[in-house]
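Q: How would the structure tokens look for this protein?
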Amino acid sequence: MTVVGPFGVSVRDPALEADVQASLSAVEAGLAEATKSDVPFITETAQHLARAGGKRFRPLLLLLAAQFGDPHAPGVVPSAVVVELTHLATLYHDDIMDEAEMRRGVPSANARWNNSVAVLTGDFLFSRASTIVADLGPAAVRIQAEAFERLVTGQILETAGPREGEDPIAHHLDVIAGKTGSLIAVSGRMGSLMSGAPEAVVHVLAQYGERIGIAFQLADDVLDITSDGGESGKTPGTDLREGVATLPVLRLREMAARGGSPDDLALCELLDGDLTDDGRHAEALAALRSHPALARARQDALSFAEQARHTLKPLPDCAAKAALAELCDAVADRTS
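A: Here is the predicted structure in token form.
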């Protein structure tokens, strides 16, 4: 058994591994070229996060989706560059809104330079992605435009918060579907589309991408509580400290609102307080780690992963399908 890509995705076919690795190398070269500018400072800022690494999850999924057609079709690698450029652009903007100081183990662009440089660099990356996608045809342009709309809508929903009377968990899932699921759905859709796969296959892989994307984001919600920092790449309880209501917290509040125990109510009160204090933060983190709300959030992530796995059923059995199924297993590994 060999391994390729993020999250320990197992690829049992050496030929597929070699093919995907070669294409990922071509994507890296494409990213390097797309982030160059005649202005050296723009090149420096645009390549800042690309050079810092990242899992390249979206290009990997796109390349696996392309295996259901001609994986060497001319639009496959450029479309993988497009989805990663778009993802990178959102990171520059996210870090501004979150006032983040670190990203991928290096200072964020807004911390290293300033907010203006960061937002303009994100815009530059969006423009480069648009230039590449324009050469892929009207269908690709429409897919990219629709995804961009969903990305922005997801961010606005997160910023605005749930409406009065709206279920906070349903709102959280809508945010994740827009901010995360939409672009991963594009990876499945574009990879299969550019490879010339049948329309039914394109539809399946788009659905799969959205569901596995949501599953991984929910797994990250769980990891913020459970990890030691090595897997998630950030300090445990970061979202908790910053007051971000991730799924375990939302499940706790749901339980408390439905007649929870005095301990549930006390923990909610603790979470609503100042968690910048190290002692209070450690107390809250420990309490959540042993609370049934965490198990419920873990089950939510696994449910979306199983939905993604079920989506793959109509596809022909092949090494690429097996690798996509391994991503569903990886959600279980990350939340265990």
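The longest strand covers residues 2-3.

The chain has a mean pLDDT of 90.

Upvote if useful.
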